[in-house]
Design goal:
Layout (H helix, E strand, L loop, with lengths): L1 H8 L16 E2 L3 H18 L7 H23 L9 E2 H14 L1 H5 L4 H13 L11 H12 L5 H7 L1 E2 L14 H13 L3 H6 L1 H18 L12 E2 L14 H22 L3 E3 L9 E4 L8 E4 L10 H11 L4 E4 L15 H14 L5 E6 L1 H12 L4 E7 L10 H8 L5 H11 L2 H9 L3 H4 L9 E6 L7 H10 L3 E5 L11 H23 L1
Parallel strand pairs: 7-8, 7-9, 9-10, 10-11, 11-12
Antiparallel strand pairs: 1-2, 3-4, 5-6, 6-8
Helix pairs in contact: 1-6, 2-3, 3-4, 9-11, 14-15
Keywords: Membrane, Transmembrane, Transmembrane helix
Protein name: AB hydrolase-1 domain-containing protein
InterPro entries: AB_hydrolase_fold
Amino acid sequence: MEKVERFARNDNFMIVSGQGLGTDVKVTSSVVSFYNLLIKYTNDICLLSKIQMYSTVIESICSLTEHYLRTMVNESRKDEDNRTIASMNVSFILDNVVPRVSSQLNHHFNRPIPELDTLRAKLRGEIDISQPKRPLTNQERIKIYYECLHTIQDIQSWAEGWFYYPHDRSHPPFKEIKRDNLALWFAWAFWHERLEIVQQNRAWATEIEWMLTTAEDHFQVKFPSGYNPVLRCIRLNFDPVQATHRPLAVYVAIYLATLVFNSLFLQWIWGLRYTDVDEQHPVGYWSGHTTSPEVPLVFIHGVGVGLLGYVDFLHQLLTQSGRRPVFLVELPYVSMRLVDHVPSATETVKAIEGMLNRFGYTKAVFVSHSLGTGVASWVSRFAPHLIAGSVMVDPICFLLHYHHVAFNFIHRLPKVLIEYILCYGVSRELYISHFISRHLQWFETIHFGDGLNDATVFLSENDRIIGTHLVYNYLKEHGIDVHIMPSLEHAQFLFDAKWKATILEHIDKTSRKADLKNKT
């Protein structure tokens, strides 16, 4: 919806062609009807033409709306008795309306149009945003607020991270961040709403003011009053989904590679069996040795190409595990596949619990990487009784109330090769970006380190997604077994034999410890 967002906040648009819209599309002269038509076709195109979602189609819709509305308003002012334009199709607009608007662009663009401003305000509130299926209750909101408050060491650097200048994505100095700018973030983080919605509720308005005042008192600072319109606040579920177009051939190639990997390695060589998604179990998985009494392993992959990216690691893991039951959970919606169904956090946890219970298991050792640690965090939050031990690599679930994951994965402009690969190779893939921006709820995913018994965490020193040293110090304070892998980037352990062997050793140690506890 990036193009729609741009329409909602910007008056300057290009003349467009009619690309992407058929000639049988009918529009009416009513502003409301045309607005509804815009939203309908934008949503339809986003759903049906996902691969081309951010190309000329959306640009055409938004630009066409701009020119159509300006012409319509102009005509209505010239003739008050003739406020409607007969039902027209898009080809008529392009042949008749746009040329006329082109000759009068300066006149139209240099005067205010209240009707268009009203439309923009409405459209700004209708942009595709996601609300959690289960918002925070008042008690949960206060609890997570205090947990966040007590884990922030420097309020100034924390606040600076959540804001940036749009022209270069650099972070502003603390003095430039005003009280209402911070209120924007608080409204999103704790109410999942825009600030104006929160302020309309008297109880919420009082509570958000209390949060700001409490933070000031706790850190002995004073947030400057007012609002700085130059700054952008990072609010993942409200920000436009940022994605780059990929040819269908890319998805076909990944699909074929996955098909070969599944058939050759998972089924034939490793002897695993696949359980597909259904209405009762919205999570697919591979399983093996499910009759063994040992505590099973559950592996949850990160973003990228799914299990395909872990071929050697899985080979060593399965070889080491012997007859131990193993479950490999699939997250196809972050694996560059044409899959848009995303189960919620609670649905995913119920599916994982059902997966284990189906084979008579009540606990498992969870091995997770990157985004997979977020899923493991869901399990820890909603079904902690399932966890017999945990090994996390490159975790994104700790200190999510800091900006690092949100900014580095979605908003940062790449400057070096590895950042370009991360940005255009992974984070701006349509389905991955859509999941992060529309389905990942930070308050469900954040892990405060409690209940991490029999857990080991591995951090890459040069990780460009999380704040490695910040997370390391935080986990150390909580007495968690945490290791920094020197000189490694995010996911680089997959290509480092030494650290791969170390991680596998800890997985084996944690599994054996879980077996002993299970027997007593």
